[in-house]
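User: Hey, quick favor. My workstation is busy. Could you predict this chain's structure for me?
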Amino acid sequence: MSFPDLFDHFDHVYIVNLPYRDDRRHETIADFARVGVTIPNAHITFFEASRPTEKGEFPSIGSLGNFLSQTRVLADALEKGFERILICEDDLQFNDLHDTTVAKVLADLKTTDWSIAALGYLEPETPPTDTIGLIDWAGGTRGTQFWAIQGDSVRAFHDYLELVRSRPSGPPKAARCSLTAPSTWSAPLCPAPPSALRPRALRGNAAPAPTFMISGFMTASSLSAASSVACAN
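Assistant: No problem, here it is.
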């Protein structure tokens, strides 16, 4: 099993890219080619990212743009009837991994009851376990470099993000939730996640945040080698 097999598991693979960032587009094409995949194609496509002119109540224009882009990807998947999708950012960089590592992650994706799988992220900086493959994760996470979502959670998460976007303004010093903020799910002023995104009980106790199945085998190219997300062994 290799990265092409991993991509084939999904109904569609989106790569979010600002149209004027040809540099990132070319780098992403080269990185996919390095793992044996020629893009774009009918199955793996670039998705035009949003770039608002004002940040509104979000921390930055970039965080609002990311929020809107991810919401639009989910809307596109719903419109086209995709039930399992993989979403990438155009600043990702595939780590050099043995095929057995990718095979284990793919096996877990096929056999584990998951809603959202955070396969590449900025935080936590090191995976919370040495185990290869996916694990239950109820802590905070940050980054949307490489993540997957499936089933009823596609609509549930889309509707949740729309709810976050439309909620009334909070206290003057409070900012809206963003997908790039740490511990997004427990950030102040965020509505409670829909039941479809709530986690299973862990060791008999209800976890405080939606279950993330995390496998640290991808890192963002914007991070230095010393501070990159650690790879699975």
